[in-house]
Write a structure and sequence with these properties.
Strand order of the largest sheet of chain B: 3-4-5-6
Oligomer: heterodimer
CATH architecture of the largest domain in chain A: 3-Layer(bba) Sandwich
Radius of gyration of chain A: 21 Å
Number of strands of chain A: 18
Largest interface: A-B, 24 and 26 residues
Order of helices and strands of chain A: HEHEEHHEHEHEEHEEEEHEEEEHEEEHHH
Number of helices of chain B: 1
Structural class of chain A: alpha/beta
Radius of gyration of chain B: 14 Å
CATH class of chain B: Alpha Beta
Shape of chain A: globular
Shape of chain B: globular
Bound molecules: flavin-adenine dinucleotide, zinc ion
Structural class of chain B: mainly beta
Helix content of chain A: 25-40%
Largest sheet of chain B: 4 strands, antiparallel
Chain lengths: 417, 97
Amino acid sequence: MKNRYSIFSLARNALSHHEKWDRAWRSPEPQPAYDVIIIGAGGHGLATAYYLAKEHGITNVAVVEKGWLGGGNTARNTTIVRSNYLYDESAHLFEKSLKLWEGLSQELNYNVMFSQRGVYNLGHTLQEMRDIHRRVNANRLNGIDSEVVDARQIKQEVPIINTSPDARYPILGASLQRRAGTARHDGVAWGYARAADARGVDIIENCEVTNILRDGGRVTGVETTRGTIKAKKVGIVVAGHSGVLADMAGFRLPVESHPLQALVSEPVKPVLDTVIMSNAVHGYISQSDKGELVIGAGIDSYNGYGQRGSFNIIEETIAAIKEMFPMFSRMRMLRHWGGIVDTTPDATPIIGKTPVDNLFINCGWGTGGFKATPGSGWVFAHTLATGEPHPINAPFSLDRYTTGYLVDEHGAAGVAH
Amino acid sequence: MFQIDCPWCGPRDQSEFAYAGEGGIKRPEDPSALTDAEWADYLFMRQNPRGRHHEQWRHVHGCGQFFDVVRQTVTYRIESVDLPGRPALANASGEVR
Ligand SMILES: Cc1cc2nc3c(=O)[nH]c(=O)nc-3n(C[C@H](O)[C@H](O)[C@H](O)COP(=O)(O)OP(=O)(O)OC[C@H]3O[C@@H](n4cnc5c(N)ncnc54)[C@H](O)[C@@H]3O)c2cc1C
Ligand SMILES: [Zn+2]
């Protein structure tokens, strides 16, 4: 990399009051044609471009983005990263991703602030505890660190949590993955953008794809607000807008787009050094390095592209958080926002071929794709480069809805992040 | 957050209703005659438009009835509410895009 970030570059730039840093990536004009076009500069699209260049030597690549890079769900999520999924197919995909996370800051020479602070998935009923035992055992068989903890141990490790048996939904125990945690969401997009750009990838912002050009069932390029761009292969990585892009290419997806919200509180002193998730009462919480409580809500049930959700969802989420952490009852919430998540019937992504030749899609991550950013980019780059899925993403084909080979992760992931 | 004008009870808060998915999807007359791909198309594939959407709602905390709605998915503005299977704005094929 031309300008490596290090303690020395930091000191050197301090001398010029940090006013002389180079731009982290170029802002090129679109070329008439590329080997590969990736639509969507979220974390997944940028990671795909980076691994295409790094792992497969394909650098004549454009990532086209209708807004600014990392302005979609990538910068709107609650950043929970874990790999303790129930089924083998998902476990392999998310664990590949977690392994990449573990070396990512070094690899990209960019601090993505990956913090392995652990994630607890709480159980509030006997049935939930049985499911937790099953999932933890499945994780261990797949070589993924995972443990069951009881309410006493949770209280010991997270003293501010309410484990009283008198709670409306008492906490009986949890699954705990200690290698799980959080990361800096923008940092991930910026790190991949900078590293992909350094390898020659063109990242073209403010460039909306308005049509997908085809010739006899084969993709030939895209129409954009900045002109026509030809390509040998095209990858769609647009999260909430997947249905819109599929429609441009003449096929349908088993995907619905829903509003999903999150909110942060005023910053306070460190009180919570891990991540707590509860499916039953439906709230997720961690504390950012700035001290804000980062709180995730549930999706609105209806289809929506408005990047905003309903007030009653926020109300329910806050009620759940207050139930688990009574001491937060007087915290003030500072900001709140929404994203558009692309959910599938089996709560599992679609990564692979489409009915159009040389057109590939990576979507359906729903409420939980941030954690998969590195792994998703890695397998999708393989798929674009070779024209065939990697064994890790082969089970996530679009035609599993025809063959019936669903990967039904609702229990383990459907509503969780 | 919006209100829905239930055909039976009148305007109520959206939180009184349950969303019941895309509207106007007809169950095939003879399911066993379909190919796997046609069945998958019926069962799983959706329009999911950014814009005008024909959908179903159920007034779960009221009369309990299902009905059809045409709603904008960006502004969330409701264009019409009608009895099941009769969306006011459907075109001849029953498809609203
Ligand atoms: C509130 C919230 C909380 C979440 N919490 C978590 C969590 O804790 N953990 C977790 O793992 N996941 C979480 N997720 C899910 C996660 O954010 C997504 O699955 C993931 O970010 C999707 O990655 P992406 O790069 O594909 O999406 P995006 O960042 O949305 O990227 C898609 C890009 O495509 C662009 N685009 C769309 N249409 C076009 C077009 N026509 N032309 C060009 N560009 C286009 C968009 O502008 C956008 O930048 C959460 C999501 C939300 C909204
Ligand atoms: Zn009613």
